[in-house]
Amino acid sequence: MNPGWWAAGLAVLWAVGAPWLGGTRPWTRGSRLAASGLVGGAVWGTVALLASAKPMVHGLSGGGEVAGQAAGSAIAVLWLSVAVIDLREQVIPNRLVLASMVAGAGWTWVRGHHVIGHLVAGAVIGISFALISRFSRGGLGMGDAKFSGAVGTALGWQSGFWALSLGAWSAGLYALASMLVRRPRRRFALGPFLAAGGFLAWLAPAAHLWH
Question: Which of 8, 76, 115, 164 has a 20 to 30 Å separation from 149 between CA atoms?
Fold first, then answer.
């Protein structure tokens, strides 16, 4: 299916359903349209890259290819939604975490990979981050820990490790830059960094940035 159809359809759906994604702050018309535009662009780029990456979608054709595009689009929408809402409110709604886990398991299944192995990877990563959260004195929230588990479910052990490492390092660099240029913030949204690391580890092989 053409990436444009996925992008347009899900952008409209996101714009309509934004108030039900979670969070408490009301959406203005402008913010909803801007976020839906980001969603459409993310979905278009994701589907286009996945369509060009034969190793990532090996064995998918016909209905399986559409299922792969659907699962990939769902991950793109959900991860970007996590980033947007966490950036707005510094909270990651449980419904988005659960939906991300389901989408990640679906993506794993349509590609013919071991769903149980990915679920175990997600659980171990999520529990590890939860333990860090327990002793980090607010530096890492439970929402971040649960979302890291969802990323691990979608990507598995190796890519999940790289995704979360990239997210953590980029967040650390942001915190350092904040300390150098202005008054440091005690808390900031980690979800956008984790989502960005997830996208990079997931789609960089498709863009031939690494193999």
Answer: 8
Q: How many CB atoms lie within 10 A of CB 50?
A: 24
Q: Specify the 3-state DSSP secondary structure of 48.
A: helix
Report the alpha-carbon distance of residue 211 to residue 113 in Å, rounded.
Answer: 18
Query: In the numeric block, which tokens belong to residue 108?
Result: 């794993």
Closest to 72 (Cα-Cα) out of 7, 144, 137: 7
Whole-angstrom distance, CA of residue 112 vs CA of residue 133: 33
Residue 108, CA distances (Å) to 99, 135, 157, 190, 195 in order: 14, 32, 12, 25, 18
Closest CA to 211 of 103, 32, 96, 54: 54
pTM assigned to the model: 0.80
How much is the pLDDT for 51?
64
* Surface-to-core class of residue 55, CB atoms within 10 Å of its CB (0-12 exposed, 13-18 middle, 19+ buried): exposed
Contact of 196 with 38, CB cutoff 8 Å? no
Percent composition of the chain: helix, strand, coil (DSSP 3-state, to 5): 75, 0, 25
pLDDT tens digits, one per residue of 147-194: 999 999 999 888 888 888 888 888 888 878 777 776 655 567 888 899
Stated as kind and residue range, the H or E segment containing 87 is helix 63-89
Q: Which of 6, 1, 153, 109 is nearest to 65 (CA)?
A: 1
d(CA 117, CA 97): 19
What band does 10 get if pLDDT is binned at 50, 70 and 90?
low
- For residue 39, count other CB atoms closer than 10 A to its CB: 25
